[in-house]
């Protein structure tokens, strides 16, 4: 059997990917589109893990002096001979990836930023001896690569003007304007906001981008990528040549992420065509412009896993690459109306919202509406069209992201419920004593204030499982109880069995769903009959527990009915 092409799991270097023969989904049409749809400063905003860094690396490999043209053999761009002759390998390129500019303090983050710029400037070490530069200009270059205690050192004006100075020196050496590529431009701002030095980082980036992108006569063009579209007033003031290409733009809509056909071809290349539907269910669903897009990080990881184990189940690869604090903040901030909207999203419905696509980080938490906007731009929601009034029809893109909401809702539920120990203890006591009025009141109130995590059109068993999870979550908080789910007992499986602190006592719950509110009573009776007919109590009796309460609990949406008997 022929050896399969290696999969590029975690590889974002175009040169390495091509030189070492990894599988590559051809996105070189991006080069043609950038040159055809000219913009002096272009910002692409896409969610994380959608191939931004790999595309930027590809641009660098194409445009930079000394380009290895064989890296593009057989790719789309190689067919445009005129464009390749005119642009390939013809420019000095400054390429920065800011994803590592992080720190608990501004000083720490600025230090990392300085190291990044210093290393990039050091790539052009020939400038120090260039015949095209004056001694003064060579001194300016040396200031960019100055070391202090073995670390690159930049501060003040040298820091803010570093990219503009480097581009000027490269222009004077080559006699050719410079291309600037800045990947993940908003990461330093995100980290700064999280750690309390947002204003200082905004000032640094505003000054740096202003001199490099706005008042730079040595700039051919620039490309930036990021997740959020930071408002012009924040860091791009006066940048009139700025072209923003966001997830709603039809231009370049297929160049970040995989299309349907690209995924089918990838699966076919590894004899995995039968896994297309599961791949689509889990990792498709993003809408960029007019294109239906898959998350490439997910697809490549899933195919890699399937190559090792054809029976491997889909996993949440994209979700697990970083925290999901944004969804947590959204759910924590949600009022009852928003909680209802979240339920409808999880049930597969679309929610219509007017969005702000241009924000600053310090505005995100100002309102729940801003959080809706950020969830959309970062990939936790996508669009299924627009209304005539300009509102977006927002949906959860796929099963993987739906699982994030479910997990965060469950975490929120636990935190909310266990913060009120007095009411919860009263509920537990009522369960031990068979006081159904107290139990019903507590469950109905809790259901009313919680967020359902099931599809209202789902099969009855799936709904029962959601209510089962809900009730178990309440019961397991009692440290004195042993709570078991789906226990083999008598002639079947009991939904929930509780062994209380009293060695002679135990509790059995059987849960049912009703199709309407009128059927709650009958559903309770069916639950009780099942406990008796299948002799679930034998499980407790075999353990010497003869003081047994059996509960039949029926649910309909956010209402429940409880019946109890003492056995």
Structure, explained:
β3 and β4 form a beta hairpin. The model has no long low-confidence stretch (mean pLDDT 92). The protein has 23 helices and 17 strands. It is α/β, with parallel strands linked by helices and 567 residues long. The longest helix has 20 residues. 44% of the residues lie in helices and 16% in strands.
Give me a quick take on this structure.
By secondary structure, this protein is an alpha/beta fold. It is built from 23 helices and 17 strands. 44% of the residues lie in helices and 16% in strands.
User: What is the strand arrangement across the widest sheet?
Assistant: 2-5-6-1-7
Strand coverage percent: 15-25%
Total E-strand runs: 17
Please state the average pLDDT score: 92
> Low-confidence spans: pLDDT under 50, at least 5 residues?
none
Oligomeric state of this protein: single chain
Output the structural class.
alpha/beta
Distance between the termini: 65 Å
Estimated helix fraction: 40-55%
Structural Rg? 30 Å
Tally of alpha and pi helices: 23
Q: What is the approximate shape?
A: elongated
Main β-sheet description: 5 strands, parallel
């Amino acid at each position: 059997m022929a050896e399969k092409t290696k999969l590029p799991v975690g590889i974002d270097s175009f040169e390495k990917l091509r030189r070492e023969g990894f599988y590559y989904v051809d996105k070189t049409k991006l080069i043609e589109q950038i040159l055809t749809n000219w913009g002096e400063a272009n910002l692409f905003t896409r969610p994380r893990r959608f191939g931004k860094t790999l595309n930027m690396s590809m641009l660098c490999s194409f445009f930079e002096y000394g380009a290895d043209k064989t890296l593009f053999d057989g790719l789309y761009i190689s067919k445009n001979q005129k464009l390749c002759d005119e642009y390939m390998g013809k420019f000095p390129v400054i390429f920065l990836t800011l994803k590592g500019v992080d720190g608990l303090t501004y000083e720490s983050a600025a230090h990392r930023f300085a190291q990044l710029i210093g290393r990039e400037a050091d790539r052009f070490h020939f400038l120090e001896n260039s015949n095209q530069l004056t001694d003064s200009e060579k001194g300016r270059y040396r200031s960019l690569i100055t070391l202090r205690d073995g670390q690159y050192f930049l501060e003040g004006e040298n820091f803010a003007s570093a990219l503009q100075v480097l581009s000027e020196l490269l222009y004077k050496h080559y006699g050719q304007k410079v291309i600037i590529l800045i990947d993940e431009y908003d990461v330093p701002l995100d980290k700064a906001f999280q750690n309390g030095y947002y204003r200082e980082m905004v000032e640094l980036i505003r000054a740096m981008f202003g001199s490099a992108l706005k008042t730079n006569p040595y700039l051919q063009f620039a490309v930036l990528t990021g997740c959020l579209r930071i408002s012009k007033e924040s860091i791009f003031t006066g940048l009139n040549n700025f072209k923003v290409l966001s997830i709603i733009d039809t231009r370049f809509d297929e160049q970040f992420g995989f299309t349907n056909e690209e995924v089918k071809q990838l699966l076919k290349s590894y004899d995995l065509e039968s896994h297309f539907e599961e791949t689509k269910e889990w990792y498709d669903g993003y809408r960029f412009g007019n294109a239906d897009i898959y998350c490439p990080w997910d697809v490549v990881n899933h195919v890699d896993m399937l190559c090792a184990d054809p029976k491997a189940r889909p996993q949440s690869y994209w979700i697990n690459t970083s925290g999901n604090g944004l969804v947590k903040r959204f759910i924590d901030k949600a009022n009852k109306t928003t909680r209802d909207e979240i339920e409808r999203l999880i049930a597969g419905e679309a929610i219509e919202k007017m969005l702000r696509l241009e924000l600053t980080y310090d505005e995100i938490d100002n309102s729940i509406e801003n959080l809706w906007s950020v969830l959309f731009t970062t990939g936790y929601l996508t669009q299924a069209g627009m209304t005539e009034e300009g509102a977006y029809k927002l949906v959860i893109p796929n099963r993987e992201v739906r699982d994030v909401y479910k997990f965060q809702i469950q975490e929120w539920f636990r935190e909310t419920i266990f913060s009120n120990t007095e009411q919860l203890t009263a509920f537990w006591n009522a369960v031990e004593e068979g006081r159904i009025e107290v139990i019903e009141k507590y469950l109905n109130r809790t259901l009313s204030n919680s967020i359902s995590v099931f599809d209202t059109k789902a099969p009855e068993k799936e709904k029962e499982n959601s209510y089962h999870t809900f009730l178990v979550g309440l019961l397991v908080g009692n440290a004195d109880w042993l709570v078991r789910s789906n226990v083999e007992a008598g002639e079947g499986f009991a939904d929930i069995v509780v062994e209380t602190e009293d060695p002679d006592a135990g509790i059995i719950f059987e849960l049912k769903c009703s199709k309407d509110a009128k059927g709650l009573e009958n559903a309770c009776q069916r639950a009780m009959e099942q406990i008796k007919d299948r002799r679930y109590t034998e499980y407790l009796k075999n353990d010497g527990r003869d003081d047994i309460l059996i509960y039949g609990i029926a649910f309909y949406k956010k209402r429940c009915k409880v019946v109890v008997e003492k056995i």
